[in-house]
Amino acid sequence: MTSGPTREPLDPVRFLTNASSGRMGAALATALLRRGARVVMVAGPGASVPRGARAVPVVTALQMHRRTLEESRRADVVIAAAAVGDWRFARVASRKIKRKGGGLTVRLLENPDIVAAVARARKAGRPFVVGFALETHDWIAHARSKLARKGLDLVVANKASVLASDRTRVALVSADSARVLPPMSKNAAARAVVARVEEMLRERL
């Protein structure tokens, strides 16, 4: 699974990132470990890795993309819970950029879509792929679109307003249903996600 934010450097002291705390990823890993799973966490900066999980630390989206694809080849389930940066700087300065009394224009390049790449690379439906959809509005509609567009098995939709909170509200969106759960702790939401993954895997047997 992936967890936490990514950082895209502009120069040695500045970077582009987001407000992800990695709490949901840690909660998911804990829930999986308690169910007897062997967990590998491709973890961005500051993401907590529970004892018992194997940590694969990364910083940038490109690093997370490469390591996630490597690890997913041996996985039964991939949960992409990280808040991956969509863009990176086209040019990274080797020295700190100094102010020169004017503005600064930068060019951004689009980062690869990690969860879509994992879904494209799988064989015979393996691994089972879970994506996250962090939205500010129309969260169920966006989750359904993401599920179909990226070829995922399950999308966990949540709202950006709870990104740094200990509580969350999620919807579990699959091809045939959308289960909107009441507000709850991230630990409880993680258990609900893991239970839904197990349920869907049993249905495939």
In short:
With 205 residues, the protein is α/β, with parallel strands linked by helices. The protein has helices at residues 23-34, 61-72, 114-121, 139-150, 186-204, and strands at 2-3, 8-11, 14-16, 40-43, 54-57, 77-80, 87-89, 108-110, 128-135, 154-159, 167-168, 170-174, 177-180, 184-185.
Helices and strands, with pairings:
Layout: E1 2-3, E2 8-11, E3 14-16, H1 23-34, E4 40-43, E5 54-57, H2 61-72, E6 77-80, E7 87-89, E8 108-110, H3 114-121, E9 128-135, H4 139-150, E10 154-159, E11 167-168, E12 170-174, E13 177-180, E14 184-185, H5 186-204
Parallel strand pairs: 1-4, 4-5, 6-9, 9-10
Antiparallel strand pairs: 2-3, 7-8, 10-12, 11-14, 12-13
Helix pairs in contact: 1-5, 2-3
Describe this protein's structure:
The chain is α/β, with parallel strands linked by helices and 205 residues long. It has one domain (2-93, 105-204): 3-Layer(aba) Sandwich (Rossmann fold), CATH 3.40.50. Helix content is 31%, strand content 26%. It contains 5 helices and 14 strands. The strands form 5 sheets. A 5-stranded mixed sheet has the order 6-9-10-12-13. Strands 1-4-5 form a 3-stranded parallel sheet, sandwiched between helices. A two-stranded antiparallel ribbon has the order 2-3. Helix 4 links the parallel strand 9 (128-135) and strand 10 (154-159). Helix 1 (23-34) packs across helix 5 (186-204) and helix 2 (61-72) packs parallel to helix 3. The longest helix has 19 residues, at 186-204. The protein is globular, with a radius of gyration of 17 Å. The mean pLDDT is 94.
